[in-house]
Structures are given as structure tokens and as C-alpha cells.
């Protein structure tokens, strides 16, 4: 009856799940330069599904939709106003389907209505969200899914002056810099590996580049935890999710280390336990719960697609 599609960038046009029309496809295509690694492939998937399932409703679930609640003080960039008003340049946020799913699961698990949660989605792409009372308040990814945390091949935050220096003084073209920051940086640029399992294995063998990359990765996450505690003026839980967040005991341990000032205290034994269930890996006296919640973007997309059929 319906085919649900994950679409990474919906801009400010789509704040909710929609049935796909010709106009929707045109807007997805128009937004492709903002998510060049994702939107073109998402659009291709839609076109193929239309051929295979001609009588089904095609539904778009946007990664950016969950973050439309971010307040203007957080999503507006400090550049001339016209860039927001005329060109819609702002923070959009991504991985919203995952952040929405795990934050709702966390709220149910905690059994509280008013909540302050930081969701940490760690995969090849990585992002964090400050979720207050179930709504996204701030997010590490911005105009495109490229900044914030260190990712598999993406650099995350970088001083814009570096880009100008690479072009003006090192002879790189803008397209070369874009490719470098998107596909040759992050953990791959730091270590030569993009798979965290390889990096952890090499780090254990004494590879200094891999050891430093893990430290840098965890340090960046810790910085945003501190920032989002300030944004929400408190914290009830942090949530680790996605491939790395759910499976890397090393990253979880490094992230939670020395955060006891915030009331974040990891239980080392619980951290080693593998499970596909929601689990609390904090010590009993920890003021902040440390949760591992397997994400299920497919289920969330199916739920939202089903709701649209009603």
C-alpha cells in the first residue's frame, strides 16, 4: 500500500512526512547540492520504487523534519539577514528519524514527561541532538550533513579560514576541497581507515594515529555534551545509538570518562554487555542515566508512512 523513503534533506519546506508528488520530487532534487552524498540516491530510490510498486503511495520521511523545532537563536547563522530570508541558509539538522525514535524510547524508559536528553548517533555519519521535552532544541549538523562531530570520512567542525587558505595558498580548487572534507577526512584522513572496528584494532596494537583519532573523536563528543547541558540547563540521560554508538564499548568508555561533574558515571561491566535491548549502562548512583538504545529508522519510517495512510 505504501513505500516509505528516507530523504536526508528536506530544507525548511518539509516539517513533516508527506506523500511524494512530482512537486516533492522536484524539491528533493533542488536540495541535492545541500546533501550531495544522499539526496540524489534518495531520489533514485523513489523513482525505482514508483516503477516496481506503481499502485502504492510513495512517502517521504525527512531527516530534517524532527529538527524544525530548533529555535531561531540556535538555527540562524551570524551572517547578513538576507541569507536566511532570501536563501534559506540556516541550521537544518539531520539523522532526525533516528534521534526522534531513540529520544521517544528514552522518555518511555525513564518514565518522565519533562525530560532533558542528549541523543548521540554514531555511525559513518555522526550527530548529536539536545532533546528537551521530546523536541529538538539544538543539533551538531547544520546547513548540510558535514559539520559537528568527526565522522567516517567527513571532517566535522573546521575553521572556515582553512578552506580559504587551501584555495588561495595551497592551490586547491573549491571542488577539490569539498571532496577532501566530505570523502577523505574524518577518521579516514586521520588513520587511513574509515571503519571504527579497524581503527580500534590498530589502536590496540599501538598505532599512534589510531589512538589519537579515537581521543579526538571522544573529545569532540564531550564538548557537545557540555554545550547541550548548558543549552537545556540540566540533563536526565545521554543516549548512544547507531552502529558505533550501540556496539563500541571503547568509544562509550572514552566519551563518559571524566564527566562525573555532570553526574555522568559509567559502569564498566555493564558497558561490556552486548544486547539488542534498551539498556542502562550507568552506575546506580549516577545522576544522569547512560542509555544504549538500538535505533530503528526503518520502523520509524514505516510508522510515519502508516500514519499518513489513515
Question: Keywords for this structure?
Answer:
alpha/beta; 14 helices; single chain; 310 residues; 3-stranded mixed beta sheet
Q: Cα distance, first to last residue?
A: 11 Å
Range of strand content: 5-15%
Integer-rounded radius of gyration? 20 Å
Q: How much helicity do the residues have?
A: 40-55%
Low-confidence stretches: none
Largest sheet at a glance?
A: 6 strands, mixed
Shape summary: globular
Average per-residue pLDDT, rounded, comes to 94
User: What structural class results from the helix and strand content?
Assistant: alpha/beta
Strand element count: 9
- With strands numbered from the N-terminus, the spatial order across the biggest sheet is 6-5-4-7-9-8
The run of helices and strands is EEHHEHHHEEEHHHHHEHHHEEH
> How large is the count of helical segments?
14
Topology:
Blueprint: E1 2-7, E2 18-19, H1 22-30, H2 39-52, E3 57-62, H3 72-75, H4 82-85, H5 96-110, E4 116-122, E5 126-132, E6 135-139, H6 160-168, H7 174-183, H8 186-191, H9 196-204, H10 208-232, E7 237-241, H11 242-247, H12 249-256, H13 268-272, E8 279-280, E9 289-292, H14 297-309
Parallel strand pairs: 1-3, 4-7, 7-9
Antiparallel strand pairs: 2-3, 4-5, 5-6, 8-9
Structure description:
The protein is an alpha/beta fold. Helix content is 44%, strand content 14%. It has 14 helices and 9 strands. The protein has helices at residues 22-30, 39-52, 72-75, 82-85, 96-110, 160-168, 174-183, 186-191, 196-204, 208-232, 242-247, 249-256, 268-272, 297-309, and strands at 2-7, 18-19, 57-62, 116-122, 126-132, 135-139, 237-241, 279-280, 289-292. The strands form 2 sheets. Strands 6-5-4-7-9-8 form a 6-stranded mixed beta sheet, with helices on both faces. A 3-stranded mixed beta sheet has the order 1-3-2, sandwiched between helices. Helix 9 packs across helix 10 (208-232). The protein is globular and about 55 Å long. The N and C termini lie close together (11 Å). The model has no long low-confidence stretch (mean pLDDT 94).
Amino acid at each position: 500500500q505504501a513505500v516509505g523513503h528516507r530523504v536526508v534533506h528536506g530544507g525548511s519546506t518539509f516539517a513533516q512526512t508527506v506523500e511524494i508528488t512530482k512537486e516533492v520530487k522536484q524539491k528533493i532534487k533542488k536540495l541535492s547540492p545541500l546533501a550531495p552524498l544522499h539526496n540524489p540516491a534518495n531520489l533514485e530510490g523513489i523513482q525505482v520504487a514508483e516503477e516496481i510498486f506503481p499502485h502504492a503511495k510513495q512517502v517521504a520521511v525527512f531527516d530534517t523534519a524532527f529538527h524544525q523545532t530548533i529555535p531561531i537563536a540556535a538555527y540562524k547563522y551570524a551572517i547578513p539577514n538576507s541569507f536566511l530570508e532570501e536563501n534559506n541558509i540556516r541550521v537544518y539538522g539531520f539523522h532526525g528519524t533516528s534521534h526522534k525514535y531513540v529520544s521517544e524510547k528514552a522518555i518511555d524508559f525513564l518514565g518522565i514527561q519533562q525530560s532533558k536528553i542528549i541523543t548521540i548517533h554514531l555511525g559513518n555519519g555522526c550527530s548529536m541532538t539536545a532533546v528537551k521535552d521530546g523536541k529538538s532544541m539544538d543539533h551538531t549538523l547544520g546547513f548540510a550533513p558535514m559539520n559537528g562531530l568527526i565522522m567516517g570520512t567527513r571532517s566535522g567542525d573546521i575553521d572556515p579560514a582553512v578552506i580559504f587558505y587551501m584555495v588561495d595558498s595551497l592551490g586547491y580548487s573549491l571542488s577539490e576541497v569539498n571532496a577532501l572534507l566530505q570523502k577523505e577526512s574524518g577518521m579516514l584522513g586521520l588513520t587511513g581507515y574509515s571503519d571504527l572496528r579497524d581503527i580500534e584494532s590498530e589502536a590496540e596494537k599501538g598505532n599512534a594515529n589510531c589512538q589519537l583519532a579515537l581521543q579526538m573523536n571522544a573529545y569532540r563528543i564531550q564538548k557537545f555534551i557540555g554545550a547541550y547541558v548548558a543549552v537545556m540547563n540540566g540533563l536526565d540521560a545521554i543516549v548512544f545509538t547507531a552502529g558505533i554508538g550501540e556496539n563500541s564499548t571503547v568509544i562509550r568508555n572514552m566519551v563518559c570518562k571524566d564527566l562525573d561533574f555532570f553526574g555522568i558515571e559509567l559502569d564498566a561491566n555493564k558497558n561490556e554487555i552486548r544486547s539488542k535491548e534498551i539498556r542502562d549502562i550507568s552506575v546506580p548512583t549516577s545522576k544522569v542515566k547512560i542509555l544504549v538504545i538500538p535505533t530503528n529508522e526503518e520502523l520509524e519510517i514505516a510508522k510515519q508512512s502508516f500514519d499518513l495512510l489513515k
